[in-house]
Write the structure tokens for this entry.
Amino acid sequence: MSDSQPSTGEEGTTTTVITATTHLTLPAHPIPLTYEELNPRSKPEEFFGPIGTFGITLLAPLFTYIFFYTCNDAVGCTPTTVSGWKYAWSLVGNFPSSAGYLWEWKAFAVYLGWYAYCIVCWKVLPGDVIQGNLLRDGTRKNYKMNGLYTLILTLGLSVGVLLNPGGIELFTWLYDHWVPLVSSSLAMATFQALWVYGYSYYNGELLALGGNSGNFIYDFFMGRPLNPHPPFFPSFDIKTFNEVRPGMILWLILNISCACEQYLRLGTITDSMWVVLTFEGWYTVDCLIQEHTILNQMDITTDGFGFMLSMGDLTWVPFTYGLQARFLAFNPVHMGPIYTSVVVAITLAGNYIFRQANNEKGNFRAGKNPKNLEYMTTERGTKLLTSGWWGRSRHPNYFGDWLMALGWCLPTGFSTPLTYYYIVYFVILLVHRQIRDDGACRHKYGKDWDKYCEKVPYKIIPYVNIEVWMRWGERYGEI
Ligand SMILES: NC(=O)C1=CN([C@@H]2O[C@H](COP(=O)(O)OP(=O)(O)OC[C@H]3O[C@@H](n4cnc5c(N)ncnc54)[C@H](OP(=O)(O)O)[C@@H]3O)[C@@H](O)[C@H]2O)C=CC1
Ligand SMILES: CC(C)=CCC[C@@H](C)[C@H]1CC=C2C3=C(CC[C@@]21C)[C@@]1(C)CC[C@H](O)C(C)(C)[C@@H]1CC3
């Protein structure tokens, strides 16, 4: 089976080939023939251009380390005091346990083993082959969707280990080698990003429209190739593989390791740890149940695969999204029934909005409209929902996602602001994503998008017009 096929629909070798639930139609213009026409030069404008992308390339890994050195059982979690920072700094390269060693070959070998295991699972476990969206060269790629089976197998093996004598202690090996594992994932992420960047100059593959500026720093970060694959292994799509497997599943495993650490220290697992473990774990499970939906997301359809996604997927997601559980491992919080109920209610509300909104759009895009929602038809032929969750704001799913994120941070109590980094980072990520998506939709739908925006003026939070607030703020400022 070839990786890139004409859009006629063919049989995959494993199981049926299913076409991604998209409404995309063939471009009206003739498909350009030359490589240069297909891959035009882009302007380095996103993230404040080369300077901004250089800054994020350095700062994102740096923050991953800072989150550890300023928040661990040796220093506590006090990045708010000068003495806290000084003490944390003195421990870099000099940490009392292997959890803070900057590099360890054994951890690197374990990490490579984990990555290889994920590839083997992708190869040998069964799964539907889904045909992706139409690419601008007129072809479609096939994707094997078996992330959920990889997760089920991994969880099954984990339970097997945990039920054996010494299994809990074995699991805490991950907690005890946190920084060496961070460094290993970062090495892998950097290697991948460099390799796909270099290889994209040789194999004539389709480039991402936003990652072909000719500026190394910018293109390395944004991602030059759109759908990179290793040589001689064209059916292995590096981007979709990275997006939901080695990082997302590792996040769940690291959380289990933190829970084991807490159990060894306390002899029990606190309510706060259970809440974090359950809800963050469910996020991973839900993401893998819906794995096919990533084919319609901008990371897959538009963005290239570069350091942003490579580092984001392999390092940022598992090691910083796991901060809450790691904090609770050495700093247990007992929430009690009332606080637990409040946190659970917020998280469930977030999950409900997130899932309902994503399902409404997913069903609608698949040609189903079980709730009989209102919609408008654009000149392009695409339909846009104007009632239900998508009539309440233009990104209700982001709002639900953020509420869930709040529910993951609240169990850590209020002794440190650091564990709340996630909701701050997530606001920035979602607002930036909203602006990018709005721009892309305006480009796609033209004045139809303006009509939709008139009908649904609220950007993320239903019925809350941030722009009105901003204008009101400006007027207040003038007074
Ligand atoms: N935890 C994390 O770190 C992250 C989580 N996420 C989550 O991933 C999920 C996917 O996010 P993302 O890919 O950014 O975007 P969305 O799932 O919100 O999809 C946006 C697209 O939906 C289509 N659309 C917009 N409005 C309508 C409408 N009214 N009716 C029908 N279709 C519409 C448009 O595409 P078209 O018209 O072409 O179909 C638009 O480009 C979200 O739930 C988000 O919260 C995302 C990033 C990071
Ligand atoms: C600091 C830095 C370099 C950040 C890069 C941003 C990345 C962390 C995010 C960009 C898009 C992401 C997505 C997910 C995780 C975070 C990153 C990689 C995602 C896999 C989370 C789970 C969701 O269900 C998702 C599959 C929709 C999502 C896809 C985008």
User: Anything to note?
Assistant: The CA atoms of residues 174 and 257 lie 6 Å apart. Residues 297-298, 354, 358, 361, 364-365, 382, 384-385, 390, 395, 397-398, 401, 429, 433, 437, 440-441 surround NDP (ligand 1) (CB under 6 Å).
